[in-house]
Amino acid sequence: TDEPDPLFTHRTADWTWSSITESGPAIYAAGYAGETSEIYATRLTSQDLAYADISTLGAPISVFKAPEGEVIHTIQGYLGRALVIGTSKGIRLAVITDAEGSLDVSSLLVSTDDGITNPIKALELDGDYAYFGWTKYDGTSSGIGKIDLSSTAFSSHLMYDIQGDVTSIIKFNNRLAFGVNNVA
Fold first, then answer.
1. Rg (CA), the chain
2. Burial level of 31, CB count in 10 A (0-12/13-18/19+)?
3. 5-14 contacts at long range (C-beta below 8 A, 24 or more positions apart)
4. Distance CA 129, CA 77 (A)
5. Could you tell me how far CA 147 lies from the centroid of its own chain?
6. 136-153, pLDDT tens digit by residue?
7. Are 132 and 108 in contact (CB under 8 A)?
8. Of 25, 47, 75, 138, which one's alpha carbon is 20 to 30 angstroms from that of 81?
9. Which residue in 82, 25, 13, 27 sits closest to 60, CA to CA?
């Protein structure tokens, strides 16, 4: 079978797409190549073809380039007006500023101690709270941190005596669960 043509091919050959989400007017996709990382936005566009309105995705545009050395691992849409961004350096909040999906990105709200070895790779949103994977929280634990997005206050929330990358979080039956890999 024939595969569909790609909507967008990144100009960097070794680009890795790391996360996709929707919020407000756009679909956002994040990725990286080496120490360079960006978020792109694409919107639905309508075309009137004969007798039917057809919606297609428009050309992606870069809406945020992370500082060199900071890699975006995960993004989640927040209340249709913002994004929560998990990176190799911590957590940022991005407010959607216009109908095109442009972003106003905060400084780090939560900072991991040494960046690359303690990345934020998992997010789970619940109202005004974001639960995030806190890889190698201290010398013995990994688990979940919790940030109140309305005040940006944060704390550890659920830890387990294991060292590794927290790669996923899910809320199921009002309980949080998280996955850890690369246990060392």
1. 18
2. buried
3. 7/42, 7/57, 7/60, 8/40, 8/42, 8/59, 8/60, 12/36
4. 12
5. 15
6. 888 888 999 999 999 999
7. no
8. 47
9. 27
Q: How far apart are alpha carbons 42 and 62 in whole angstroms?
A: 9
**90: helix, strand or coil:** strand
Question: What confidence score (pLDDT) does residue 116 get?
Answer: 47
Write down the pLDDT at residue 136.
84
The DSSP code sequence of 120-136 is ---EEEETTEEEEEETT
Average pLDDT over the chain, rounded to whole? 89
Query: In whole angstroms, what is the distance from residue 184 CA to residue 177 CA?
Result: 20
Residue with tokens 């797409």: 17
Residue 36: its pLDDT value, please?
96
